[in-house]
Amino acid sequence: MIDLDNFTPLTALAGGGLIGLAAAILYTFNGRVLGASGITASALEGVIHSKARDGLSWRLAFLVGVIIGPLIYILMTGALPQNDYIAQDGRLIIAGLIVGLGTGYGSGCTSGHGICGLARFSKRSLAAVLTFMATGFITTFFINHLVGL
Known about the structure:
mainly alpha, 0% strand, transmembrane, Membrane lipoprotein, lipoprotein, transport
């Protein structure tokens, strides 16, 4: 849920711009799409199988940055922003597993399809984004209004 009293559109715009810039740099210089699920899967495959080690260093650097980013934020501000979750831990774990399966079946995740795929005018990415957005809207409506959780 967005805290509209403390929402700062300039920082959101700057963050989105940095993500877009990172995606453009990776695609320009590596010819790779900045998709978190694909980078994670390729990195794990590279760690497990020696034949899949091409590009392992930049993938690991990306994942380390994803982990270190919040730690740097904590050092700079003293705490992470407050998050309110409407589901218990067990349901969050199940939801995460379902999302992981979906990224496998959908050949990518929100960052790969939503940021990079749409920027390349990919019809498959447009279909994927419309599907996961509609599913998210319907699921949120169902949980908040029909189930009452």
